[in-house]
Amino acid sequence: MSNLARGCLLGIEHLDRKDIFSILQLARRMNPSKPPPRLRGRRVLLLFYEPSTRTRSSFEVAAKALGAVTVLVQASGSSIEKGESLLDTGYTLRALGADVIVIRHPNAGAAMLLARHLDIPVVNAGDGMHEHPSQALLDAYTILRHKRTIDGLRVLIVGDIYHSRVARSACFLLSKLGARVTLCGPPEFVPDIASTLAPGIAVGRDLQEGLRGCDVVMLLRVQTERLAGEKIGLDQYIAGFQMTSGRLKWAKKDAILMHPGPIIRGLELTGEVADSPQSVIVEEVANGVPVRMAILARAVEKA
Ligand code: CP
User: Fold this and answer.
1) Where are the domains of the chain?
2) In terms of Cα–Cα distance, which of 142, 127, 123, 129 is closest to 197?
3) Does the predicted TM-score (pTM) go above 0.70?
């Protein structure tokens, strides 16, 4: 059975429109305050090799809302620190009765590796610079609460695209749903080759031009932890690409402002923009719960 059929969610790249809409529709039916006990008696293992606030907490809230027991294993304080391999850690969690493993890992392909060797659903909660599929799904869910359709929308993604698994998953999803996406930033963050990621993706260097006629503005965190050896002047980045209230006016009046978080006020955006009426950043976090409930419910149903 394929990973997809087995309930795994490893990335957006290999999903089709039908898969995406079926998860979004299921999420719409999930009411976190009156949830169906679809995971009663199940164990969801949260295996996090990298820091996380939103993704880890919302998968935990989602799993518990559906009646599951959750167990958190983090690299720090576990036998991973003693050198236990990813696969041996996976076998251990399976032996402990895991029904689903949600994994975040610094290496691209880690979730796929685990999925290939285990007979239970594996959900990718972010693997290196590869994909962050649940973030793309919750972002699509959020957009659809403000816009009638994603088809034909103009989306500007600004910032550190090169290091961003959020951007990769967003590009795959938005392209499949018919959005016109422009990736905007300096060449160190947005190499020209990024336009080949998926159909309908363009690269732009000028923020004002990119914002003109834009329906959705998605900002990304500058991933200083992945910048080793790369010479990026943060002052120069702020001068050219920081989102300020004045610059946000270049977009459509009803444009929404998104950011997957964590936000760094004063770097990729000002505090005023983060807290502005156009900002849906907090709503994105809240929408993570029904979307991740849907992902877990789908995982268990297809297992
Ligand atoms: N958006 C996101 O992945 O946030 P966390 O790193 O806090 O999970």
Assistant:
1) 5-131+288-302, 134-284
2) 129
3) yes
